[in-house]
Amino acid sequence: MAIKSSAKMTIDPMSVKYANEMSQWTVFWGLMFVVCRFALFKKYSADFSNRVVSIVHAVVAIYYSYVTFENGWDGMFDNIGGANTEAQTLCMAISLSYFTYDLIYCALGGDFMSVVHHMFTMGGLASGVLNGRSGAELVACLFLMEVSNPSLHLRTVFIEMGLKTSMLASINSLVFALMFLVCRLVIGPPLVWKTLASPDNDYIVKAGGFGILAVSVFWGMSIIRIIVKEVKKLMGGGKAKQA
């Protein structure tokens, strides 16, 4: 009797067709940063421009991942460990190209914590693209991670623009915190459990899903503090400062 091993990885021929596209997208992210840094936002820092690129990627990733859910939100939990659709592979390839760009940026900037984080993320996405499997859960995980990222990066953008204490910044922080908690700690755990329980997933996919959940739980308390702080600011305003 043959025993199927979840650790065995085979190369999906379909992944080869995305290699050139991934290279083009990686160049695209790099060129976008150059345009932002030296033309559009040259009075701000390099981090500002990189976060603009990250916001654009988050929007692109949210769109491409959502359209892969054939049954809407419920489709996020369909076909765990199964074969990829072309839409899922394309979505993972685009995001893999972005993380390649951002890993290079973070490495050059000495942000080694982000480098390690990106390596785990890229490992899972690369596994999905190369072996043509687990696209459903990887794309769903990508969606849950990216949906709060525009607000996350906007927090730093607002600080550089001098809007840290504005109502817009407070609302943005509140939106970020709520979306993070709902996506990472409410919807995320069932998805991670299904990923871990699937016998068809590679170990790197399972490890990546568990690692992201662990990091999300770690940051959960800090996110709750953000909610409390911003709600008090929006409800109290100037009166809270005078007290």
Keywords, please?
disordered C terminus, globular, 9 helices, mainly alpha, disordered N terminus, 243 residues
Structural overview:
- This protein has 243 residues and is mostly helical.
- The chain has one domain (14-242).
- Helices cover 74% and strands 0% of the residues.
- It is built from nine helices and no strands.
- The chain has helices at residues 19-40, 46-66, 86-109, 112-131, 135-146, 149-160, 167-197, 203-236, 238-242.
- The radius of gyration is 19 Å and the shape is globular.
- The model is unreliable at 1-9 and 238-243 (pLDDT under 50).
- Keywords: Membrane, Transmembrane, Transmembrane helix.
- The chain crosses the membrane at residues 22-40, 52-69, 166-187, 207-228.
- It comes from Micromonas commoda (strain RCC299 / NOUM17 / CCMP2709) (Picoplanktonic green alga).
Give a topology summary:
Layout: H1 19-40, H2 46-66, H3 86-109, H4 112-131, H5 135-146, H6 149-160, H7 167-197, H8 203-236, H9 238-242
Helix pairs in contact: 1-2, 1-3, 2-3, 2-5, 2-6, 3-4, 3-5, 4-8, 5-7, 6-7, 7-8
